[in-house]
């Protein structure tokens, strides 16, 4: 599967994911698990919701990896 997230998109997703997880831990809430979704998509560089809409935030050379 081709990458469809650019570098800035990936960084933002990882940061947001870590913030949500940290807030979940601090508030002792299971909602912190929601942070795993942006964290994993940011690490992988692929967002399945982008595929049906044909969205890609990465440069064309990165999409081939």
Summarize the structure in words.
It is a single chain. The protein has 65 residues and is an all-alpha fold. The protein has one domain (7-64). The protein is 45% helix and 0% strand. It is built from two helices and no strands. It has helices spanning 7-26, 36-44. Helix 1 (7-26) runs antiparallel to helix 2. The radius of gyration is 13 Å and the shape is elongated. The model has no long low-confidence stretch (mean pLDDT 90).
Q: Would you spell out the secondary-structure blueprint of this structure?
A:
Blueprint: H1 7-26, H2 36-44
Helix pairs in contact: 1-2
Describe, in short, the structure shown.
With 65 residues, the chain is mainly alpha-helical. Helices cover 45% and strands 0% of the residues.
Radius of gyration: 13 Å
Structural category is mainly alpha
The number of distinct structural domains comes to 1
Distance, first to last CA: 9 Å
Q: pLDDT average, as an integer?
A: 90
The gross shape turns out to be elongated
Count of DSSP H/I helices: 2
**Could you give the order of the helices and strands?**
HH
- The proportion of residues forming helix, as a percent range, comes to 40-55%
Main beta-sheet annotation: none
Tell me the fraction of residues in β-strands, as a range.
under 5%
The number of strands is 0
